[in-house]
Amino acid sequence: MADHVFCLFGTLMFELINEDSDELLCILATNSHLRDIMHYKPRREHLPSVQGYTETVLPRFITEDYRTHFRISKEMFTAIISEIQEPLTFRHRGGHDQISPSKQLFIFLCYMANKETMREIGHYFGVGKSSVHNTIMRVAEVFLDKLLKVIQWPGFDAQETTARENQLSFGLPDIMGYLDGTHIRLSGCPRGDNDFINRKHFPSMQLQVVVDNHLAIIDCYTGWPGCAHDARVLRNSGLYDKAEEGGYLAPNKVIAADSAYPLKHWLVTPFKDNGHLRPVQRRFNRVLSSGRQVVERAIGHLKGRFRRLQEITVHEEKNIASTIVCGCILHNLCILCHDELDQYVDRSNEDDNHPNNHFPNIFQNAIDGVHRREQLMNALP
After folding, report:
1. Collapsed DSSP state (helix, strand, coil) of residue 224
2. pTM of the model
3. Is 359 helix (H, G, I), strand (E, B) or coil?
4. What does the pLDDT read at residue 322?
């Protein structure tokens, strides 16, 4: 076969040298067999890749190397693998060697911490692109099954403690959490659905979070396309239903949010600045804005540390949502382990986070919400 290919290729080169370009094009156009031979590429049985990276290089990494490459400490890696090792061990069905649980977690963390393609990640770990994809989806499923518990709504006692700490820090009483929405950029619209194009004209999926004063995410909700207003996302979330029913927040406790959201008895937002605010109202806005920096820092840490959330390249909505929630889980694990936070906070894309918040709230403020805001404002020292 190889001799035949070289013979025909030599004939073509001879024609290239001795014939003018028009006649050469005519030869190629009329000789389909010759065109097929020119595109012939013998299949390679083995593609070169890095070998022994997991077995020989990674064991020599210290904690700082782990933070650089995987955005978590070596100790945290050990804690995570001890929690999820069993479900990542599956029966070998033949074919290629089974990927060990530790290697699966390394692949997943490399994906979450960086922007490399699955092909590039596979090159490092000596596995194919499809194996990388399957590994990431498998580990994400185990994360949601075993580690979702780290995103937990606090009980009444914890809410009281958070409210007291917030009052000592910012001056406003009864605030047990801060709510905000952010846009997770996508490489393309899932299913070609233009509803994912937001007001900044890039495709995204909404992520709504509530955080406490320690930057921990105590509630997250994702899945809505980028065109949706933040208030509409909230209205369709489980948080909204539970808070409206009562019994989800401790008595008199509230969540603080920005002006994109409606006032509720459990949700407090700033006064709309129409140029005629009273001094006490402007002061209330300043204090509320100072407190809300907590949620902005949390979002900045989430995207700055786990850079996959700066742009997700998978196209299935379910996989996009699971990747986002896994990022929130990893963020909370860092909080629980008191891992370094400030060095990872990224504020470079803050304008992308809030494309809708410059637009008016689309739902009417509740009367009891208006009264609750007045009470908080009058409680300022």
Report:
1. strand
2. 0.84
3. coil
4. 98
